[in-house]
Design a protein that fits this description.
This protein is 44% helix and 23% strand. The chain has 3 helices and 2 strands; from the N terminus they run βαβαα. A two-stranded parallel sheet has the order 1-2. The radius of gyration is 16 Å and the shape is flat.
Length: 79
Amino acid sequence: MKSLKQRNFYIIYNQVPHGSSEKVDKLLETITSEFKKILDVEVLGTITFDPTMDFWTSLIIDRESEISKTLKHIVSKLN
């Protein structure tokens, strides 16, 4: 019989309004708290939403864009 490997669970909040208000921050804290009641989770980061940003151009062409930096930071937490 194979032993079951413990799984790690992570949260990445996506499309959070850029320059989010205290109200949004409080909501994310509440959601995280509720998840933690059920699962042992770690928040890896937040990807902000900016309607003026072209996601693919920022990610593929501009490797120093904020979205690229955010994703690199999130991935670094997995290593």
